[in-house]
Every structure is written in structure tokens, then in C-alpha cells.
Specification:
By secondary structure, this protein is mainly α. It contains five helices and no strands. The protein has a domain of 43 residues.
Length: 136
């Protein structure tokens, strides 16, 4: 009896990612998944150096991909801070901590920033607003 019912095993893939991939499992998609509003954020004032540079690099990319919501602010911030920490340690000639790389990999995968995390995701092409085109 390992794990907790409903919480053990792989993390579920968000419905938006399933839709982008074309729902490869062909299972019914949940209708009641909460949708957080998409918004633009101002840069946190405590980001400096490499962390700030990473923010300025990655937020426009993720915004253009329509991945970011209000709920992702802390994840993106933590990702940028981790990138800044790794870069600062490397510049200072200090040993690079394995925990920082593990944290980086985990956050990058959560945001879809690794090749493996987006390997199965395809973009949806807009075929227009004409609902009649669906039928033929």
C-alpha cells in the first residue's frame, strides 16, 4: 500500500498540454480544470545580474507560447534565481552544487523549457473562426 490514493504515480499533464499534443491518449479531457488568467508581469525588483537577464530572456518566450498564467509567477522567479545562483557560483570559481542543478532541471521541466518536456507538444494552428469549416 504505497503512496496516497490519487496522489501517487506520475504528475498529471495539464489539459492545455494534452490539447497542444492533440490528446494522444484520446481520453476524455477534464471539463472542470481551473483556468488561471494570463497576464503580463512586471519584473520582480529583487532580480539582479544573471537572474534578471534570464527573466528578460525567458518571460517573452513563454508569454509568446501562451504558457504563463498568474499562477506561474513564483515558478518563473525561482527558475531565474536558480540560473543566477549557478552563474554566480561558476564565475566565482566556487564548486557548483548538484542540488542547484537538480532544482534548475525540475523548474525548467515544469515550465516546458527542456527538450524532453516539450518533445510531445505540438502547436495548434488557427484555422479560422468559421465553425462550419469543421464539417467539411
Amino acid at each position: 500500500m504505497a503512496g496516497v490514493a490519487g496522489r501517487s504515480g506520475r504528475k498529471p499533464k495539464p489539459t492545455a498540454l494534452k490539447q497542444l499534443a492533440g490528446n494522444p491518449g484520446k481520453r476524455a479531457l477534464p471539463a472542470n480544470e481551473p483556468e488561471l488568467p494570463r497576464s503580463t508581469w512586471s519584473t520582480p525588483d529583487f532580480l539582479i545580474g544573471d537572474a534578471l537577464a534570464e527573466w528578460l530572456r525567458i518571460v517573452p518566450i513563454l508569454t509568446a507560447c501562451k504558457v504563463l498564467t498568474d499562477g506561474d509567477l513564483q515558478t518563473v522567479t525561482a527558475y531565474c534565481l536558480t540560473v543566477g545562483e549557478i552563474a554566480a557560483n561558476a564565475r566565482a570559481g566556487e564548486p557548483l552544487r548538484a542540488a542547484a542543478f537538480t532544482h534548475f532541471r525540475s523548474l525548467a521541466a515544469e515550465l516546458g523549457l527542456t527538450p524532453a518536456s516539450r518533445a510531445r507538444v505540438q502547436t495548434i494552428t488557427d484555422k479560422g473562426d468559421d465553425d462550419a469549416s469543421f464539417f467539411g
